Amino acid sequence: MLSCREMSELSSDIMESHLSLKNRWAVYMHLRMCPRCKLYLEQLKLTAEVLQKLPLDKQPVDSAAILKQLKLSEDLPGPCNKTAYARS
Amino acid sequence: MDDEQALLKRLRQGDKEALEGVIKLHHAFLIAMATPLVGHELADDVAQETWIKAFSAIKKFEGRSKLRTWLARIAINEAHAIRRKTGREVSFDGWGHDQGSPISTRFNEQGAWDAPPTQWHYDTPEALLTEAELHECIHKHLHKLPDDQQSVVMMRELGGLDYTEIARALNLAEGNIRVLLHRGRQRMHAMLNHFEEVGTC
Predict the structure, then answer these.
(1) Taking CB atoms and an 8 Å cutoff, what residues of chain A touch B120?
(2) ipTM surpassing 0.85, yes or no?
(3) Is the omega angle on the peptide bond into residue A77 within 30 degrees of 0, that is, cis?
(4) pLDDT band (50, 70, 90) for residue A74
């Protein structure tokens, strides 16, 4: 039987389906009867989603100046002679 | 066509506004991600090199990953290249050491909740992020995370990189990366929880 403390330690693994076979059933049973751990897990998931969707364009960035600087060193967008990053 | 596909189309055409727009969207992320890898002074160089490489290869970017993830991959390679070129060693000593659960005091001796989680006002990321004050608070607390946790959270949650890539970039085992990410999430959860309960950062 897993304790709530152990459940909190496993919560990222639960979110990412990275549980050992041994823990899978124990986690499932614990979540069925423990609304507190269920809520913690939901909130941790929400925290991850908030970070994934966090806008980063609120900070002042002088994009025109950066682009100008880049254009001094290369013609942009240049010919695709660099293939290292092509297939992502 | 979603926003990113539309943006990519314009980038491939060399649309100046789109080039500026994409810099505005991701430059701060690239700097924040590169800083622990090369130090503060060289992070700008990493970002510059990343843009040069990215813009010259944009026509071949197939869009199978998110644009930011692709940029993050380039930035990590550029950070390594700059480190090699400058002979600069950045110390990752102590990275990956687990500092333990930040919520251990919320459990009793038997491991049951003493201070259980309480309901938040919002239950979607979009709803939570409508509060401008919360944005600032998240940024502030992201920077307050221990360096190793901050780096992993940036690469995984904000950058969308997978565990293998992060482990390689930071020269740590995947198991360490998972623990660091979990601790980082727990700390950021504690921050959000405080904001939801008290209403201030």
Answers:
(1) 43, 46
(2) yes
(3) yes
(4) low
Q: Which domains does chain B have, with CATH numbers?
A: 3-86 (1.10.1740.10), 104-198 (1.10.10.10)
A17 touching B (Cβ < 8 Å): no
Residue B149 to residue B13: CA distance in whole angstroms = 38
Compute the nearest-CA separation of B65 from chain A (Å).
6
Q: What is the separation of C-alpha B96 from the centre of its chain, rounded to a whole number of angstroms?
A: 16
**Comparing A32-46, A50-64, B39-53, B183-197, which segment has the lowest mean pLDDT?**
A50-64
Q: What is the model's pLDDT at position B50?
A: 97
Band of residue A87 on the pLDDT scale cut at 50, 70, 90: low
CB contact under 8 A, B64 and A64: no
Helix or strand holding residue B139 (H, E): helix B132-144
Q: For residue B46, give every residue at least 6 positions away whose Cβ sits within 8 Å of its Cβ, in sequence order, or none.
A: B30, B31, B34, B37, B38, B75, B78, B79, B82
Cα–Cα distance for residue pair A7/B188, rounded to 1 Å: 18
> What are B167-176's contacts with CB under 8 Å, separation 24+?
B169/B37, B169/B76, B169/B79, B170/B92, B170/B95, B170/B96, B171/B92, B172/B92, B172/B95, B172/B96, B172/B148, B173/B96, B176/B95, B176/B96
The pLDDT mean for chain B works out to 93
Q: Please tell me the pTM assigned to this model.
A: 0.89
pLDDT of residue B134: 92
Q: What contacts A23, CB < 8 A, 6 or more positions away?
A: A2, A10, A13
pLDDT of residue A75: 57
The amino acid occupying position B72 is A
